[in-house]
Amino acid sequence: MLSILLPTDFSKNSENAIKYALELYKNEECKFHFLHCYPPVIFTYEYQIERGLIGKNIHKILQEETKEKLYEFALSLMRNYGNKQEFDIEVVQGFLPDRISKVVSDTKIDLIVMGTKGETDSKRVVFGSNTIQVINKRCCPIIAVPDDYKFNSIDQILFPTDLNLEFKSRHLQPLLKISKLHNSAINVLHISLLGLSSMQREHKKYLEDEFANFKAKFNILEETNITDVIFEYQKNNETDLLVMINNKHLFFENLFFKPIISKIAMHLQTPFMVIPA
């Protein structure tokens, strides 16, 4: 049974991402873990007097009230978008990326699905700092869902790769699970000016074998600008999900930790699955 973590700050963005997850895995046996994380709070003496909280455990009161709110929130979404799967809730104090790492470890989470920005972030920013930090934790696969993106179908999956990673079954399982659930085609995209090395040819052969029972197509393009090629491909070809493996110091860092991050943020229109290597 899949265990899927659904972080929420009760914003429209996080609610939209949760709806996407419930639709995406509607026909899969899984358990959804709703998580709300609130930062450490210091209550002023005046606030405690005004609310009649002097001498009481304010943090416990806040946590219980938030748990009740989260339960009602989760129950409403499960009734409207779920398919009788199991779910639970957890309210914790701390900073979201750190708490997510702990929950993933303690609960053996298989996948995180979260929105790409918080309630107060700029409309121009697609990837908020929490999302980037969770991706960089590399604790488990994550799907980042753009603001207002509505689930329709997963017919076409775009899988760009530099073919430098020695692929393992665990790298491909999240991608293949979705492809099997939705009978999706997998479009493998390799971008290079140098042609394939012997190592890359071996890795390509491994992918071909793993994708043999799926609708997979390999595209090898001679270009230099990775992001431009991805955007151009998506513009000219239907893409319902972008999937990449976060191979440290290689493809992913070239993509995200240069000034072109703003360009990605302005153009990415589809959910993005990042699988840690």
Describe the 3D structure.
By secondary structure, the protein is of the alpha/beta class. It folds into 2 domains: 2-145, HUPs (Rossmann fold), CATH 3.40.50; 156-276, Rossmann fold (3-Layer(aba) Sandwich), CATH 3.40.50.620. The protein is 42% helix and 22% strand. The chain is built from 10 helices and 10 strands. The chain has helices at 12-24, 45-50, 58-81, 96-107, 129-137, 169-182, 198-210, 226-236, 251-256, 261-267; strands spanning 2-7, 30-38, 86-93, 111-115, 142-145, 156-160, 185-191, 215-221, 241-246, 272-276. Strands 3-2-1-4-5-10-9-6-7-8 form a 10-stranded mixed sheet, with helices on both faces. The two termini are 22 Å apart. The model is unreliable at 118-127 and 257-263 (pLDDT under 50).
Concise structural overview:
About 6% of the residues have low confidence.
